[in-house]
Amino acid sequence: MTDSLLTVPQPITDYQPYLPTGNEYVSLPTVRPDGCIESVNVLSMQALGLLEFAGNPLIAPRIGVEGQPLNARTVSLPVGGILTPPIVGERDSVRGQVLIFAPPGHRGFVVLLEATNGASEPREVMLEIGLQWAEFNRVIFSRRETGGHRHFAWDAWTRSLVMEVTTLVGGAALAVATTETLDEQTISANANRARLGQLFRLLPGETKSLAFYFAVAQERDGARTTTMDLRRHGWRHLLEASEQWLSAHRPAGLPDDALGEMAWRNLLFNQFFAAGRTIDTDELALVTSRSPLYYVSVAFWARDVLLWSLPGLLLTDPVLAREALVTAFSRHLHKRSAGVHAHYINGVVLYPGFELDQLAAFLVALENYVRTTEDWAVLHEPEVERGLHLFPSLLAPHKHPRVELYSTFLLSTDDPAPLPYVTYDNALLWKALIFLGEQETGQGHEVDGAAYALRAGNVREAIMEHCVVEGPAGKQFAGAVDLDGRHILFDEPPGSLALLAHYGFCRADHPIYRNTLNWIDSADNPQLGPAGRFQTAACVHAPYSWTLSLANMLLSAPGARGERAAKTLRAAPLDGGLACESFDADTGAPVTGRHFATCAGFLGYALYSWLRNLL
Fold first, then answer.
1. What is the rounded distance in angstroms from the CA atom of residue 90 to the CA atom of residue 97?
2. Cβ neighbours, 10 Å, residue 43
3. What is the pLDDT of residues 153-207, one digit of tens each?
């Protein structure tokens, strides 16, 4: 396979830490540790991706003491969604704090500034924000300036500053207001700059707060009136509701140690960055990531959404998980698009190429959902019934003429398959066919149920006959075969043979499986990642240590592999504790794929499962 046939990520060369936050309507992926916000984005169905307000920075919270800046900063890890950790600083015995939070269910977010005078005499304190709107971008995989008509002006009716862009690919608006009568209100419409703030005289021991309410909508009237709604709720109520949401959605039994907090952080990031609602149609969109820092952001991958994100959503929000599942069946399981590499958020093919694991993912996810929730009624949703009926016809063209194995064009890395019959993909299909047979039998279709059960059994027999080969230490699973005598030993983190036991294809102590695990971790594996204290299995797509490899190790089998993964996760920084695609084997810093939200869901799920098994 030549490099010209691969679309591989470029290594990160300018890493900067961020505190991504947001809710289902708005994302703030680039909040700096000092509280400055570089960009704000919303999902747009018309734009088929994100619409982004950006600046350098777009929003700059500032606290001044006696005319001098109080430089607030945090060294805490990102929470993952809804709010940032407190960003604090001190000057002349005045303690300042910035808190940014996006209350669930609301089309907006709050920037809260607070100052407490710890001195024995009064202090003059300015609480303000600076706005510098430089760009309005459309983002799918890449970011591009949209052009269009811009509006930047003070609205006297709602006492808010409004930014709006109208373009041929959709529009969006961002407005900001506060409940106070502002002392500082400087707006330069030509330069798209503004300062909004208030000067306080703080007595000894006194605390003052000033909240800036930011609202998003598809046009200016919706944004400016939404600032009124946020102000009517008030920041205290909105913050309390946000904290209550966090408490209610934390998975039961998740420990509060370092690994438990890492699991929670990644589950939250999955909840709010792998799914969101479009600003123009209020539809759920399922994506790899709502952050442009991920190099293939804002698109649908069935594998990512159904095999990685959905298990995380089932832990934090089963209601949303159900909606995500039905949405995937409704919008993305169709004759011309099912199993195809990547889709736009509306279901149309974005990046062609059939991937067998992505077709099987629909049924694997459906089984996972119903067995976890016992919500069998979902099987009678019209779009789910349609998908189950359609599945066999979608699968049929990929069957070998004589052997019950099915081909794929692309691997789970989205790179071309070196041989057509990939072991992992067919094991996943076996699981899908078992479930399909059970559902047919359960609905009284005994003949069809028996036929699918037989087909699943034949797939399993074909895997054991044709995909088990002699390896360096005995029989093991091959990565792929051609059924003409050739096979290749390979493994890749996004579709790893290490997960065969997790998906029930074999026992964790099966000797062929154990030999396969040992080979994956050994120097005999040509794609073992670079040596270092954080070494993992890797692949050609990104020849570094992989976060998905750590998740696979946690789920593969009890014992040393899981312990090694846990040890790495305790020590490696990753992307501020959030999942990235790959990381450096020596430093643990991100190398590719920052803000990989669906991977965060799988990592959170794997950590939760591993930690629960320790109890």
1. 9
2. 28
3. 999 999 999 999 999 999 999 999 998 877 767 877 678 999 999 999 999 999 9
**Residues ≥6 apart with Cβ < 8 Å to 246:** 82, 268
**Beta strands 21-22; 172-177: pairing state:** unpaired
Q: Are 92 and 71 in contact (CB under 8 A)?
A: no
In the chain, the percentage of residues whose pLDDT exceeds 90 is: 94
Task: Identify the band that residue 121 occupies on the pLDDT scale cut at 50, 70 and 90.
Answer: very high
For residue 292, what are the contacts with CB-CB under 8 A and spacing of at least 6?
Answer: 29, 39, 41, 50, 52, 137, 139, 143, 298
Q: Which tokens hold the place of 341? A: 């590499």
**pLDDT score at 1:** 53
The token pair that represents 359 in the structure block = 């077709």
Output the six-digit token pair for 252.
Answer: 């039961």
Question: Rounded to an integer, what distance in angstroms lies between the CA atom of residue 304 and that of residue 614?
Answer: 27
How many other β-carbons are positioned within 10 Å of the β-carbon of residue 157?
A: 9
Pairwise CA distance, residues 352 & 340, whole Å: 6
Going 583 to 589 to 595 to 600, the CA torsion angle's sign is positive
Q: Which pLDDT score is estimated for 2?
A: 61
What is d(CA 516, CA 518) in angstroms, rounded to the nearest whole number?
5
Structure-block tokens of residue 532: 């270092």
- The Cβ of residue 558 has, within 10 Å, a number of other Cβ atoms equal to 12
* Both tokens assigned to 78: 């990102």
427 Cβ neighbours under 8 A, 6+ residues apart:
463, 500, 503, 505
Residues 395 and 338: their CA atoms lie apart, in Å, by 10
First to last CA, the chain: 46
Q: Give which of 46, 56, 54 is closest to 27, Cα–Cα.
A: 54
